[in-house]
Amino acid sequence: REAERGRFLLRNGRGARFTEPQALEGEDWLVAAEVEGRGREARIFRAAAIAPEEIEAHFGGQIEERREIRWDEGAGRVVARRRRMLGSLALAEAPLRDPDPAELGRALLDGIRAAGLDALPWSKETAQLRARLEFLGHQNPDGWPEASETALEAALEEWLLPFLSGLKRLDDLKRVDLSQALLTRVGWERQAELDRLAPTHLEVPSGSRIRIDYSDPDAPALAVRLQEVFGLTETPRIAGGRVPITMRLLSPAHRPVQVTQDLASFWHDAYFEVRKDMRGRYPKHYWPEDPLEAEATRRTK
């Protein structure tokens, strides 16, 4: 009998119910002697109650022992159990002792696929690592593998499964070393090359190390106060010189005053209009006439 009174599951997996209310609706097990109807649910016209031990006596040779390890969306976890099955009917079940950790991991992958990659424990560092790998895969210098969300989801068995052994819940994923897992896509031997082609930070003339934003794989960006890049004559480039950094030049209040991939042209033309406006708004800050000869600074003056 299923959870709803009067509804039953047949051995062949179809549903069935009585055509009208009767006492047998409350029984756990029935022998349905006369059933009619097509589709997902049939109608029971004649039936008799049967005890579990009678099922064992009459159908023992057809009962199978099955091991089941799968992701249970309702429970939000991997379930591992041993079941005695007569067709689609579960006669008994119990927790599976000592399930294979690798099988648990493969079942947890189904939960991750259902929830999406956002279910993984992304920190600021691992999110940037993922974006750096996506940038290199997008630009594909020297054959870097694709690391887009679609590519990572398609290759979960390759890079994430080895780190899921024995885990059962999405909350358990916080124990995964996500950086190490991601780096398996490229191999540890290429980590130095990764840092060279897609560095995490860029040092600007003021001495500050600014984090590079790789959220747009077509245009990695650096948000930096204008005073900190005085003297930087050319736009920095990454990916072996192939890709210019998008410079988001900020006011003292950290608001964008210019976005450019051509610093040389900015210093030559637009800077003087920006200087005129900024001197009026922020008179205590440094706005030199010659930004290429001026000393970069993190200070007000």
Keywords:
14 strands, 25% strand, single chain, 3-stranded antiparallel β-sheet, alpha+beta, elongated, 301 residues
Note down, in words, how this protein is organized.
There is one protein chain. The chain has 301 residues and is an alpha+beta fold. The protein has 8 helices and 14 strands. The protein has helices spanning 52-59, 101-115, 124-139, 149-154, 156-159, 178-183, 191-197, 263-281; strands at residues 7-9, 15-18, 30-36, 41-49, 64-72, 77-86, 89-95, 201-203, 209-211, 221-225, 237-238, 243-244, 246-250, 256-260. The strands form 5 sheets. A 4-stranded mixed beta sheet has the order 1-2-4-3, with no helix packed on it. The protein has a 3-stranded antiparallel beta sheet with strand order 5-6-7. The protein is elongated and about 100 Å long. The mean pLDDT is 91.
